[in-house]
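Hi V.,

Quick status before I head out on leave. The structure for the redesign project is tokenized and pasted below; the design run finished overnight.
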């Protein structure tokens, strides 16, 4: 499974600049005017993970395969987007397919960069975007309710879904995102929304975009975004999209040195992916052999057979057992042979819950 993240925000807040930086590909036009992105941009990016390098130094594989994340950038949304204003509303369907959302919010003053509303006010901007996402969900839910009302005439088993849809509609009509609906994790809600994929039910990561001067110390605008996110039980990060773009051509070592000169230890991509994994409850385990060292993304809490299925369905169907070494033990003992000799390699069965960083070898028979 791959992490997929949609990028939203008002026009001209740095979305496309961030997209260019994150993907290290200048395939999203960035310009100082609204709606410079008129087609949804997509890119596949490797997930930075220093543990792969550490494993590879021991195993010396032919190739290294990182986990991946897909970013989708759409045109800037404006007030009234749900009713057809601007261009971003044309591409909201692309955001519905993502797992989480980055909401880029401008948190810097500049006379050179136009703001679509004439002034910088991150909380106002957040309200505009969130309102449009909720309104788009209301439209999708209205159509769902209409279909369910027809279907329940012949299938009474769908009545719980219809009731859930109506309660969700009340929640949205009060201006609340679906993610704060008290039953949004229930089986009935999940079944009711699986074909409409409500945008406001997705985990949100607020990205406070600052200029270079705002990187080291949080300004009042950034503090306001962090406070709002905390109140919404959402993730938040501080980034400088322009600096990230400037670093996009640097090596990992050069990036680290450059960030250090700015008083920052972690780049924007690392922060966003880390918060994305946390928001979605994702972890990684590894397979390590002479052909390949690879990271695999799974849900935290998955048992060994289901975790094996991300490699191939046959691994789950024919699962026998898994040989497991914790990452730290693998490194400390310089590989599988050393871990086996010191008793750090364990044999686990079908009920084993995979831990973040486990180095695994699956035995199966189909």
């Amino acid at each position: 499974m791959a992490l997929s993240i949609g990028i939203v925000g008002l026009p001209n807040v740095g979305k496309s600049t961030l997209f260019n930086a994150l993907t290290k590909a200048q395939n999203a036009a960035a310009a100082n005017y609204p709606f410079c992105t008129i087609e949804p941009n997509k890119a596949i990016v490797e997930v930075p993970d220093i543990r792969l390098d550490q494993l590879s130094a021991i195993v010396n594989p032919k190739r290294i395969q990182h986990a991946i994340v897909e970013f989708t950038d759409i045109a800037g949304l404006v007030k009234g987007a749900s009713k057809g204003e601007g261009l971003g509303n044309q591409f909201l369907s692309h955001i519905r397919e993502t797992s989480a959302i980055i909401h880029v919010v401008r948190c810097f003053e500049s006379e050179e960069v136009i703001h679509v509303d004439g002034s910088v006010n991150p909380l106002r901007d957040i309200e505009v975007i969130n309102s449009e996402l909720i309104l788009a969900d209301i439209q999708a839910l209205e159509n769902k309710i209409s279909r369910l009302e027809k279907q329940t005439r012949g299938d009474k088993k769908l009545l719980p879904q219809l009731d859930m849809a109506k309660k969700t509609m009340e929640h949205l009509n009060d201006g609340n995102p679906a993610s704060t609906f008290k039953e949004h994790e229930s089986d009935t809600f999940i079944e009711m929304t699986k074909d409409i994929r409500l945008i406001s039910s997705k985990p949100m990561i607020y990205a406070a975009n600052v200029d270079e001067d705002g990187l080291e110390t949080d300004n009042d605008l950034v503090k306001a975004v962090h406070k709002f996110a905390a109140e919404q039980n959402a993730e938040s990060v501080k980034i400088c999209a322009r600096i990230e773009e400037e670093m996009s051509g640097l090596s990992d070592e050069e990036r680290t040195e450059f960030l250090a000169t700015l008083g920052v230890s972690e780049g924007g991509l690392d922060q966003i992916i880390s918060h994305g994994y946390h928001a979605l409850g994702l972890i990684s385990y590894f397979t390590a052999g002479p052909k390949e060292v690879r990271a695999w993304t799974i849900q935290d809490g998955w048992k060994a057979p289901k975790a094996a299925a991300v490699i191939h369905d046959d691994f789950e169907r024919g699962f026998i057992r898994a040989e497991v070494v914790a990452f730290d033990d693998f490194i400390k003992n310089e590989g599988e042979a050393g871990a086996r000799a010191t008793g750090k390699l364990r044999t686990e069965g079908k009920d084993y819950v995979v831990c973040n960083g486990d180095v695994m070898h699956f035995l199966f028979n189909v």
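Above is the designed sequence. Confidence is low (pLDDT under 50) at residues 25-38.

G. will cover questions while I'm gone.

Best,
W.
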